[in-house]
Amino acid sequence: MRPLTHWFRDTTQDLGLRVIAALGLVLYLVFIVLPVFMSLRSSFTDENPLKAGSNWIGLANYREMLHDTQLRDSVVYTLALAIGVTAVANVIGLLFAMLLDRTDLSYRVLRTIAFLPQVISGVIVGFVWKTILTQDGLLNSVLTRSHLVSHPVDWLGTPHLAQVSVGVVVAWVLSGFTTVVYLAALQNIPRELYDAGSIDGANARQQFRMITLRMVAPATTISVTISLITVLKLYDVIQVLTSGGPANATQSTAQYIVKTAFSSDRFGYASAIAMFLLALSAVIALSVTSLLRRREVDL
Amino acid sequence: MTVQHTGAPRPVTVPKRPVRTRRPAEPQRPRAGRARWLSPARLTLAVVVVLVFVSPIYLTIVNAFKKENDIVSDPAAPPVHPTLGNLRTALDRPDHLLQLGLRNSLIVVVCSVLLLIPLGSAFSFWISRRRTRLRAAILAMLAAGLMIPPQVVLLPTIHILNFLGLAHSYPGLILSNLGGGYFSFAVFVYVGFMRAVPDEVVEAARLDGAGGLRVWWSIVMPLVRPATATVAIFLSLWIWNDFLNPQFILGPLQGQTITTGLYLSVGQFQMDYGQLFGIMFLAGIVPVAGYLAMQKQFIAGLTAGSTK
Hints:
Chain A is an all-alpha fold.
């Protein structure tokens, strides 16, 4: 018989448990890790679903990416969207959280309501906002009736306006999430800090800068990172709202990958762009996290 | 100004200022004269801001119960002549968009979550009792799963399912859900809780002759029920709302989930506002009702995850 100190080993070496645990890991390896390497391999080929087999074409796909203006525009738009939406959603989230940081019932109800945009699927969000924003949509009918504009504004049909409109909708979705994250952080700040602050003669603005902002720094790291990653993956809201139009103005890189794969049937090239998006996401996520973590320490 | 004495005990008396211990659970007292008139003003501001913020949701709800010309003449008005006509039109569609979509989504969500919970928790129990270095390495690999854009793994996933003979099928979609980033999420939630389970508890069960499976399922799982609630709630919501995977892994021939069904039928045909809002209302009501019913666990799960 084994000594008792080995019971942990025993527990985990129980066959039934190990089989279930291993199954989970195997599925993860098969459906996340393996696909990444398959994508990498495919990115060096001219794979196409319409013809059997594929040829190794080396770096040709990557070379093509350098001159692909549609790709370049999509990357620029995705990055601008990621930065803009993250900034707006985090500012709104912090302001909302500060406004709603009360424990009375009415505030709890308001908090519950404020998180709703995060619960509804991107497809529904897209359609509801589309109904509001199209040229003969609800916003224009309100604006023209109250004579705020002389003729309807095409919120989704003009390239620049559409780019901003998509940003507004995505920021709207994310703000529900950031609000809850910042609320949790605010509720963890001991009241004594503010009491001590006011005894020391700090005014509201100083208290905000010296106490609130510093104490929510870890929440900021989480919230900013998740916001950025969410926008980099974004597909459903844009697909419903504009399908990437007009004239590809609102096409995200994630969307361009799907279009290249399933509309142009160029699996190899789509894989190369996917590898680029993966690298971009990794660099952004890692650098932003380490930057913000260092900021947490400095503050 | 320094504010370092966070944990320091409060002074017993402060001249001219009675000491009140404030607990977060009780409503805050107005601090000074200013606060007394400020607090209704603040509540009004909060109500207005939140209502403006959720106005698209408000529009969906009120217009789902209004007649077409009432919607067009004043979309923001409450339903003065309420009607159930829109909901009836939405439910009576010959393609049974809502009924089939809700049913198919429910199948995918229930199967995926019921399988992800044992897979994720058993794996977490196993990894939480491993050496630190191995644990750190595996958790780092799993963390990548949360970050990888689904578009990157979409094409190979379809190839793999083809190879397994499961392409464009519900088992295929569910299988790919099990292996995706959802597994990472489940493990991250569970591991934190599993490590908090005291060794003595497991040891005692072990001495009583329980095997590993038994310890995990009958002893540890009941102890980490909050983790299971968080995992179940969030995975249900994400899988329910997923659009990309049902669109391409399931494909158009196998019937639609609620998201792809909406996309195909609402996106392709012009329809009047009444029916559109009716459909959106009925499609959105399921996750919203689930959220409202479980919002305490919902918020708790989110805050536990984000302040860790």
